[in-house]
Fold each of these.
Amino acid sequence: MDSAFLKELITPAQTKIVMLIIDGLGGLPREPGGKTELETACTPNLDALAAQSALGLTQPAGPGITVGSGPGHLAIFGYDPIEYEIGRGALEALGVDFELGPDDLAARGNFCTVDANGLLVDRRAGRLPTEISRGLAQILRTIDVQGAEYFVEPVKEHRFVFVMRAPGLSAALSETDPLKVGVEPLPVRALQPEAEQSACLLNKFIAQARRLLADKQPANMITLRGFAKLPALPTYSDLYGLKAAAIAVNGMYRGVARLAGMEVLHVDGDTLADEFSALRNRWEDFDFFFVHVKNTDTFGESGDFEGKVGAIEAVDAHIPCLMALEPDVIIVGGDHSSPAVLKSHSWHPVPVLLYSKYVRPDGVTKFGERACLRGSLGILPAKDIMPLALANAGRMIKWGA
Amino acid sequence: MDSAFLKELITPAQTKIVMLIIDGLGGLPREPGGKTELETACTPNLDALAAQSALGLTQPAGPGITVGSGPGHLAIFGYDPIEYEIGRGALEALGVDFELGPDDLAARGNFCTVDANGLLVDRRAGRLPTEISRGLAQILRTIDVQGAEYFVEPVKEHRFVFVMRAPGLSAALSETDPLKVGVEPLPVRALQPEAEQSACLLNKFIAQARRLLADKQPANMITLRGFAKLPALPTYSDLYGLKAAAIAVNGMYRGVARLAGMEVLHVDGDTLADEFSALRNRWEDFDFFFVHVKNTDTFGESGDFEGKVGAIEAVDAHIPCLMALEPDVIIVGGDHSSPAVLKSHSWHPVPVLLYSKYVRPDGVTKFGERACLRGSLGILPAKDIMPLALANAGRMIKWGA
């Protein structure tokens, strides 16, 4: 649905919406005829909630499309994930909790090794320890090329985030990693005329980096790739008139939420209980809360079926805390599926539950993939969840007389 | 989904996909409370396959739209059948296995009867016997109008296919059949400036045809209609990186498959067994096989409910041959419905089954219209089947990080 059309229908209300995203929620059975992770988990609280909810399955970006967490979250937040693409550099920056702004151009950086002739010998500098990488990032931060500000944030091993800040930067740039050894790292080239200035600044930065790192074997050079600016998303406040908060432990999810104009709340600790404490503590301050559960996906991606089952059960145990707050609307869903048997994200639709006093109950009393198939929401694009939530929250007026 | 978007995600794999299209598969019950043709048929093999598959119902071109076999096949092949329209002349040419190229302008031709004043007396020349038609086509082939090559292929009775070949032809042309008697056949007129040359050549051809046929009562004149060029489809190789083959006995299906860049395989005979032999013999040579079953539709269109049931059972009997090849992904579906009670194509969604090791089973163990309604694919556009098949075949990478 067109967001301009939706926006016209928004009306204020004293209601609260909670969107609980269980990362990588959808799964697959371990053996033919078996149950999925969610179907295996003992989830009395989610099942009770399902009995009062409308159920369905969400598709983040279309049939057969497996999405990363960035587009997966944008979709369930109500954005068209294909229209609002988050480039790799920007995602990496969000992942380290870097507060990217509209003037920022981000990239993924690698420390690498070149020989005396400047030819690449190791694209990852022997996957050097994160500790050393941290020191080298400190050195790169001393670089001063007039015309922009520069930020370097270590990620892990040889990887770092690079951000250049100046008005009018463009991401239409070629990458410097030649993806093979025995050749020089490539210069940055502008792929469109408006990127000339950006390319020029970057090449000067890289030249200085080369000089400063010259004696820092094995990490004596850098490569930059995945240049990206943030997509300019209309915010939750603009679109929906919602004062929205995000509760997430991992940087990337905090970053994507910030992109949607959500205020990222402080979480004292990194457990589910800590996240629900933050929710309780700030309950009065917002209309909308996005609460993110990460470890379900981590277990799915590592192929740990039982681990994922346990993680889902841990979420279930917190549902009474959530209900005690008496939200008007609750969404429980996922950004994508991560079946343990595939050890990866997958294209399978994701179970979703929409609770409010005004949903038409569908007579389904379990929360699981097959149960959701019999739900009244059907299989729907993930981005359709928000309009449904807003309607159930009394935040949309009638269209037409 | 945008095909450019999809194309970016395609990755090579050593997997094989079989798309078995049972023409006109969907049906209707004969009497209230009764079963459809597919539900009536005894299909133990398809039912066993369904139990390991995701089921659903496909809509070729939208709710309520009844499609012909051309758009029906384009849709299940993954193309938007409204965007890529195959004109009537082009379809007729494909139907006689004419290998239409990009420089070809095709039309449906009729032999007709005019009186001494050139006024139409019979638009079908008394539906003259195909044998006579064949001889007259031979005469038309002698026509030589400079500026193009001309092809005439008899179809049946008074009908023939006409193809004109030259660079830069346009199909923006009016038809010559006035659709009533007592008037002269119309001249071809250009409907857009770029069609002037085409109109001029066609009128010269028709003038010569009139001269050559003058004494061939009752077929002493021709009309041409349905001028069409082929739509320029991106091929299976371009779009999906698939080396694709088509196994079909009837010309039209071979033609549509060729349009999608499939290699049309030789079938030694015209039975289902012959088609499955061709599949087995060429199994090593391709990634994707389209196998077409025609007679289900023929029975449906002639109102033969029992005949269609039998034809479906015959397909079922060949499923073990298919399974023996161990395809990674199997699609069993149809291009449209052809309920025997309607004696025609219909708009009803078409049962579809998608088998792979990675589908999420939906607990449905029958292949039939009502069973498919409870399947996990839901009711989906036919063109969404290919992305799902590619995902299940491990031929699509994740989108976004």
Amino acid sequence: MKNTLGNVLTVTLFGESHGAAIGAVIDGIAAGIPVSEEFICEQLSKRRPKGNISTPRREADSFKILSGVFEGKTTGTPIAVMIENGDTHSSDYGEMKNKMRPSHADYTAQVKYGGNQDFRGGGHFSGRITAAIVAAGALIIPALNKKGIFIGTHIKNIAGVEDRSFEGVEDLKNLEGKDFAVLNDDIKALMTDKIEAARKDGNSVGGILETAVYGMPAGIGEPWFDTLEGELSKALFSIPAVKGVQFGLGFGFANTTGADANDQMQIENGKVVTFTNNNGGILGGISNGMPIVFGTVIKPTPTISREQKTVDISTMSDTLLAARGRHDPCIVHRAAVVADSVTAIVLADMLSVKYGTDWLGE
Amino acid sequence: MKNTLGNVLTVTLFGESHGAAIGAVIDGIAAGIPVSEEFICEQLSKRRPKGNISTPRREADSFKILSGVFEGKTTGTPIAVMIENGDTHSSDYGEMKNKMRPSHADYTAQVKYGGNQDFRGGGHFSGRITAAIVAAGALIIPALNKKGIFIGTHIKNIAGVEDRSFEGVEDLKNLEGKDFAVLNDDIKALMTDKIEAARKDGNSVGGILETAVYGMPAGIGEPWFDTLEGELSKALFSIPAVKGVQFGLGFGFANTTGADANDQMQIENGKVVTFTNNNGGILGGISNGMPIVFGTVIKPTPTISREQKTVDISTMSDTLLAARGRHDPCIVHRAAVVADSVTAIVLADMLSVKYGTDWLGE
Amino acid sequence: MKNTLGNVLTVTLFGESHGAAIGAVIDGIAAGIPVSEEFICEQLSKRRPKGNISTPRREADSFKILSGVFEGKTTGTPIAVMIENGDTHSSDYGEMKNKMRPSHADYTAQVKYGGNQDFRGGGHFSGRITAAIVAAGALIIPALNKKGIFIGTHIKNIAGVEDRSFEGVEDLKNLEGKDFAVLNDDIKALMTDKIEAARKDGNSVGGILETAVYGMPAGIGEPWFDTLEGELSKALFSIPAVKGVQFGLGFGFANTTGADANDQMQIENGKVVTFTNNNGGILGGISNGMPIVFGTVIKPTPTISREQKTVDISTMSDTLLAARGRHDPCIVHRAAVVADSVTAIVLADMLSVKYGTDWLGE
Amino acid sequence: MKNTLGNVLTVTLFGESHGAAIGAVIDGIAAGIPVSEEFICEQLSKRRPKGNISTPRREADSFKILSGVFEGKTTGTPIAVMIENGDTHSSDYGEMKNKMRPSHADYTAQVKYGGNQDFRGGGHFSGRITAAIVAAGALIIPALNKKGIFIGTHIKNIAGVEDRSFEGVEDLKNLEGKDFAVLNDDIKALMTDKIEAARKDGNSVGGILETAVYGMPAGIGEPWFDTLEGELSKALFSIPAVKGVQFGLGFGFANTTGADANDQMQIENGKVVTFTNNNGGILGGISNGMPIVFGTVIKPTPTISREQKTVDISTMSDTLLAARGRHDPCIVHRAAVVADSVTAIVLADMLSVKYGTDWLGE
């Protein structure tokens, strides 16, 4: 029961939206991995709000590496990354101290922490904390790439508008440099129109991310409990607003038969492969060498400017709330890089268990 | 990366389908919990194959408690439960040593364990191991009930045939004593017909389970990583054939808006409640006091008697395989009690973290 | 807070002295390690009581491997080892239900488990549980040996009688096959005389074990918390009656100076070695390639037949107790193989973290 | 294998002696604990070097709480504490990049991290990192005090000069405000003379700390592996230079008998107590309600200005080294507050497991 992810390679998060700083400690990462501050910046930039489809809160997300990096490489000791909080409008949130935002964590935090939580801007529950996850992921992703493992996430669905699915590793190139990660560029305007419309309407929309991992070695995962699906899903569910995770056909399996859904097998260039990949690259909790493919659903942003029924916790009475402050009409596109990041952390951890804690730096 | 579930209350599994025994060690469970061997038998009976819709392998699942129970109550020390293997037809599986069953764990086990795995009957990957999970759950469920926490799972969908959803805690009574857990009894025959048909056709079908937890206190879970959703999903994904987990509206959130999907709040009898429960009782990774509701998709049983393309791992060549041996045309109904059991284990663990390791026995 | 040892290679204990069985589950052990039942028997034999210097309770310790071994080798899945309890004289212990044996765990168990513990024969606190540790160690030791890592423990001190210290790896050969492990055979009679005398006197004696590990690679351990010393000591303190652990000079360091105690270094055959080994092969929590050497003190067996002042927990009144039942006047010699075993488990775990979970089987 | 201590209340360390900052993340700490920055300062001051008996490196140790504290109290979310590095003379250490300091972690770090470690000033192995432990402990100690649990450490021995032992809880008052924590004030000059003499001689001395915990409830600890002794010793061994830990009589048990050493029991004011406390308050790995008492030996500071034989790792050749830079002729007195701090962390964690994660803040 900890705010820590991982077994031998771990990431521990800290920070509140309006506190001094947020950050992460990455422990168990191999020594000798080159650290590119530029790449960390690029990754942080992907989750930064942009244009009319995001919150007007704009922060530089300038990070500082406090430890664990020396002469441009990981030392093998814990890396602490800190992102100081700047552009905070704490006064916007005064009303929200006692008025619980529906479908947000305000009330559960109140119960869990007995009223001691830093309520400003969602405190420790703020999506802003995902910047620390992204920074941690950005330390790991280049090392995975060097091992031939590539991760990408695109927006499969926003408010019912669907992108096409991944067709191969070349689709990851297709996503490079995109702030709004769709495979079919024609679909982007349809999606952003939906977001724009929701924003104007004081409303919000949700969607589905699809992530693919190419080059994942077979044999990673455990049969029970620490399955590859279990470890990935646990990590993905900590991205705020995620309410479902499915691998391969996922919930579509309910309407198929074994004969149709089974991934039949063959030898191809001396390697065992499957004709289809309905299982999303995982069988028995363990990677089978095919691409790992999964979908993650993100609910509509709960903070909306429309008036909603809620409660005042100080008086235990019914009240109404129309959110002020800055908020996003959709966070699906901003969450794509977070999905990449938690995936990278989980895979690096599980690979480190199998191959040893030095492997990632070799 | 272990075959262990939990933080302070842990369950460790062991065993292979055709080995000497399977079992579980439950550690960190409070002292003083009454142990009902009769209830354990009842629970084990629920996952036992029955009638034409299941495998002809029939085992008594007679379990033995090796430790941790004294004079009818838990002692507070680790409980080892052992279920000896009886009705094994190992000779059925000779062919399957080298011929990898498509969509099964044969090939991933081969890679992970380098050919040292006990391949007979799926070995450690066999669904039979879930009997040990059920036994562990049966030690915990009565203690949760005593605390006012009640868990139930019904078959929401088999091969496209849908049951109605949970409507209240009284639906759990409705499920009592049912081997085929549906809320709407009229739907049972439609579902079993689908399973029957698949069996006759040498095929298999999948489906969706829906689980509800009533009486769960608010305030349980962590904001990041050890979220309630994350811990539950991790546990659920270790049930063989599970390929997706969703909470509340789940993937349905992609097609809603914040205004429609948000769970607005009110005071009712001095307690904070929500009008709707689209978030399935969890916000910010923490229980909010509403029923916890989630869906789990189970793929069609991969072992089918139809001929399928696969590989022979000893010769690294293409081959064909039509499964012999005994197998289920559908495992959705048998998995319901397993979903209840892992849910009970996860909740008992998370409650023990919050309230202390003695709480469950008080 | 679990009865589990280890990070990626874990050992979980279960069982009570007078229950159905005791045992261990070993998880995360590499696949492909040959399992010798004969060697397990030999190791178990070493801790079995013998002659006049031990308890008359004599058990065959016949173990049964329930899972995780197939065709003579580890499968890579959890290994459950069970040792059924046979020769129990539970009636001997009736008086001890309420009369707390001084310096034993009776009273602390009573408080921790609220009176639900199995009090017969020390229950879960019985030294008998160490047989399961020995069985677990016996699965690992041959694999370490194959890697060139050799572990041995001798009796350094019993009741003030001192054996000489380890002088080199050849001393391990010297210990082979000895039930009473001393390096200087002339000292054995002096020690057993002390034990004999204590037994006749209704008393007991303690002593010190010295363990050496030859062939340990440099670079294993963490700088903080999961130090090699910390992990070893944690494991050693779970051997009943252990009250102190020291590495190298240990408490002797208090009376030296840096100039005298520092292990100066040189190159020998292209390898970095130290002239002395006052640090017992560990610096900064990490192995330095020199032999790992540590001492473990074991207190006199608390159960003695002399009358002692104690309390009756049922009446909360003062009383007297003279232990009946069977007990050892000294357990130092029987604990030597347990020290070897926990050392093997800890090192195998830490090596598996560094080199990966397959390494031990390669 | 992590730089993290604890089960449900965890402390993760980061930082290098000459990097940007050192610090700790404290997770799982209860909400609502008042935080006194003044007390943190006082505690940090205790380990700060002073006078002629310590290194001339003088740092303000001004810490910054980055998260987890709001309006003067813990929020229940992770607390990150950062101490920026100031007074670094990195140039002093140039020679030490390749010349391994005997009995220091230079060589083991070199092997473990493959030469990527930050070698300046001992890097991540520097005693300076213990400032972060002290800061973490200072968040916890007042909460333990409020529960009636009091911890104190005195210098039992420096270079053979002995202080008297603890005689009761009032001795903790005696230690308050002392930078050089002895119970018998007459002994202080004898000890500091030894340190002074060693410094003048280019040498160093070691010693023994004795820690006592008064008011510890009975029933805390596990019988196997996560014993109270095991968890404390594991934590203590991560204090740099610690080479042995003993509870109660410790190594003295080797020369006693059961009749002499057993702690006989009686009822006193309706409570079970022992006449003596030779077991240091712990039986069967579990606290018995008597004071917890243990000794920790600290070796002479390995860095001395005398010339020593060592190796140059860049040329793999023999060389000589006389340490320059600033260093302590003795660190025993500075380590006392660190021993208090790790003790507080371990006990708070184990109490939180037993009583729940909210308990410490109640």
